[in-house]
């Protein structure tokens, strides 16, 4: 019996939408990363990008457990000496709520060119509105 490997051109990509309202951040991120990688498909191929597009709305309303709101810190670096910047989850939610979900999902994808290609299929919006209605996204549950 031969093993069939799928090429990225033979995959028909779907669009899924996740409403992050009152969902726990880690559970949302694992489901989104799994769909971006294509692990929900029977044609999953580890070395190819065979995943689907994911739209996340209401990113500002995602929940975290425990005291992460005050204790979780995001870091970034400008590239210059002494250029380390930090921001707590609470301030990140006020300024850039999309980055909370983006950082969680990005950490669950492969750290290579393939992972960066998969990450481009993630679209995150702070509110209800998104410009992808023409793609007719299907609702995705976290079951």
Task: Describe the structure in your own words.
With 143 residues, the protein is α/β, with parallel strands linked by helices. The chain has a domain at 14-65 and 95-139: Ribosomal protein L13 (Ribosomal Protein L13p, Chain: A), CATH 3.90.1180.10. It is 28% helix and 17% strand. It has helices spanning 25-37, 68-71, 89-95, 98-106, 113-119, and strands at residues 15-19, 53-57, 73-77, 84-88, 122-124, 138-139. The strands form two sheets. It has a four-stranded parallel β-sheet with strand order 5-2-1-6, covered by helices on one side. The chain has a two-stranded antiparallel ribbon with strand order 3-4. Strand 3 (73-77) and strand 4 form a beta hairpin. Helix 1 (25-37) crosses helix 4.
Produce the secondary structure layout.
Blueprint: E1 15-19, H1 25-37, E2 53-57, H2 68-71, E3 73-77, E4 84-88, H3 89-95, H4 98-106, H5 113-119, E5 122-124, E6 138-139
Parallel strand pairs: 1-2, 1-6, 2-5
Antiparallel strand pairs: 3-4
Report a brief summary of the structure.
The chain contains 5 helices and 6 strands; from the N terminus they run E-H-E-H-E-E-H-H-H-E-E. It has 143 residues and is α/β, with parallel strands linked by helices.
